[in-house]
């Protein structure tokens, strides 16, 4: 049987949109507090923005270039665009519907979104004064005529298209009013009430103030999404300078989507479409506020804690606490330490690096950084370490999408402190997560490593689920040295003791693990694979999973987002089950478990099973050596597989159905279980 047949695969873009639909669906679940449901709507809007800026922009490039190749599911670029447009239009209508329902429920709690016309006389006087004082001086109208061409409007900016004319004149003119969201915010609060006005509605209400002598015929909010994909040349003398130039190009990318208010006239729609050079399918009519991502910050509205999740405070590392020593080096030497974020605090990792920075016995710190927060304690610790005379080497990935600018700032800050900052291997993004501390001890030099599935970002570590391992294992330490030499110099790829590295041997190792289970199944022995990841797209691995399923291997996959594998196909994937968990935290950990005749091979990794991760990125996969850690990770996977409250089960056609907790069943939510376990001071397994 040909497991590479395109009929066995789904389209990547459609499966991503399916994931975003699952995010949106959480806004309708009464299990989620009301403001959290609003946040899910905001997240789905933000996700769509990025999808259009990167994925849709990429499809447009392929179409414009005349590329006709078929994707993994057999669709041409135009076929993909047609499918994406259809689903995206439906999804944005769903967002409108969900937002209306959620805002209606907020009214019951006194939180209202009103229009200027709804205000009483006293409130109207306040609004007029506010407009004259705060808004009018900031906004500059832009008229469109032969001497004033259509202006460049930045991506995701909100604007008003204004049609106007003089009373004595029949000529209709067009002007643009930029909505100054970045300066004033999207929402303006009415004094003494939890009532809010959209800034664009205020501008529309007072539009005549900007066009003295003209009659306003129409004001229409619209929003443009532009191509944000960067084409960065790496064969240059200064990579940072090249990235900075590319960031400027991103701001001026071609329009890929126009969102426009439902009230828009045909004339305005036609004019904007022409000026932005868009197809009809690129125009999205919105019956509500445009660009709903801003509701994510509004969901933090003070005084409404009852409408949000009960606060959860990440707990100290259970394993470190059990070591009964405050000496972190002694604790790690005693035994590897496994940490589970955000249930266990990321401060454990930050303290690891801070302790190294201040420890006189530490000679060197080496670290890869992909995404870091702008106020990162890790950056401060590394800078202090360099000032303290330690050798500090940091691989800063300045090509991390949408974090390029922040990473450049951080890189220069580290260089100014005396750190040696490098930018990786030509043609590859460095997505691995590793820190190595070199320390002089009584018995000689020892290396301590932290390896993880997630970024060194204290902000996202509070909302992303990830796994980290701290170890003093000599073989991993030796591999760590080889790994950094591989990244920073001209060293050929070394022979590894334990680390598994993409693009060198990560895919091959995964395939070998699957082959191992196939052999067990053929001998009539128990054969089982459980794997968790963000995305599954690699054809070679999927075909191997199909082969394993056909041989009788039982396979459970927990895939948050993109999944082009089709489970449950007769004679192909009958033994494969796929589920997606969408909950309070963003599922981000990557774990692989293979039964291997009872010996249990368990790995954590920075890599998803996608061609870009396995071919074009530097990634790490780490074998777990301690049996209690194997047990713990297996228990974590099994908890996800038992989830009947936040899990979605994938059907063979690519659709998902929510796992049901039928009458008499005990409700199980994996994330809730992990929180309760952490609060109890215990670990699973």
Characterization of the model:
The protein is built from 20 helices and 27 strands. By secondary structure, it is α/β, with parallel strands linked by helices. It folds into 3 domains: 6-307, 2-Layer Sandwich (polyphosphate kinase like); 318-498, Endonuclease Chain A (Endonuclease, Chain A, 2-Layer Sandwich); 501-680, Endonuclease Chain A (Endonuclease, Chain A, 2-Layer Sandwich), CATH 3.30.870. Strands 14, 18, 19, 20, 21, 23, 24, 25, 26 and 27 form a 10-stranded mixed beta sheet that branches. Strands 10, 11, 12, 13, 15, 16, 17 and 22 form an 8-stranded mixed beta sheet that branches. A 6-stranded mixed beta sheet has the order 2-4-3-7-8-9, sandwiched between helices. Helix 2 packs antiparallel against helix 3.
The number of distinct structural domains comes to: 3
> Given the structure, what is the number of helices?
20
Our measurement of the CA-to-CA distance between the termini, rounded to an integer number of angstroms, reads 39 Å
The biggest beta sheet is recorded as: 10 strands, mixed
Text of the CATH class of the largest domain:
Alpha Beta
Overall helicity: 25-40%
Tell me the radius of gyration: 27 Å
Instruction: Please mark out the parts with pLDDT under 50 across 5 or more consecutive residues, or reply none.
Output: none
Structural class designation:
alpha/beta
What is the average per-residue confidence, as pLDDT, rounded to a whole number? 93
User: What's the CATH architecture of the largest domain?
Assistant: 2-Layer Sandwich
Count of beta strands: 27
Binding site for ATP: 47, 464, 560, 588
GO molecular function, one term: polyphosphate kinase activity
Active site: 431
InterPro entries: PP_kinase, PP_kinase_C_1, PP_kinase_middle, PP_kinase_middle_dom_sf, PPK_C_dom2, PPK_N_dom, PPK_N_dom_sf
